[in-house]
């Protein structure tokens, strides 16, 4: 059964659980920040799709006082948690929060970069084209998109190894079993080739991988 991201209990424990569930969770954000620094100018405006409880937003705010952010999430409970974290940092003036999916974003192309980290695998396959098109349309010319998602497992060795990695990170055996069940039932993953083709069909160019840990893979693409 899919997690209820509107549940206060789920949201409260999310930041601890996600670090056990996603291999290299913090390293992903370290890489994303490094890439953004290499391509963005001062006073950039970044779109964060599916901001969740605000970890990546908080991470970037602490490092970039001149960047502005728009953060969108369909879960009001998640969004409120992210707002609380930003208020604690006293950085609310840098962030615009939007409750909803990508269709709720402003129509103009105003973003220098977009992040969709651990989001698209929750988006149903028939909605994915519109999801990425919404992001594409809101980006300025030459802007970049960074993604990171669960891919459909082609190599069974990767899937077999994943629970051992998560056990080392702190998941229990029961939690690992639930993770494997959820991966089979609750996610809308694509193969690596299918993911790249979808981004290219949307209009993105120069789609290249920048990170991979077993069944998880990240891509950078340019409008």
TrEMBL record:
UniProt GO BP: methylation
Residues forming coiled coils: none
Keywords recorded for this protein, A-Z: Methyltransferase, Transferase
Pfam family, one: Methyltransf_25
Superkingdom assignment: Bacteria
PANTHER family documented for this protein: TRANS-ACONITATE 2-METHYLTRANSFERASE-RELATED
Protein name: SAM-dependent methyltransferase
Organism of derivation: Acinetobacter genomosp. 33YU
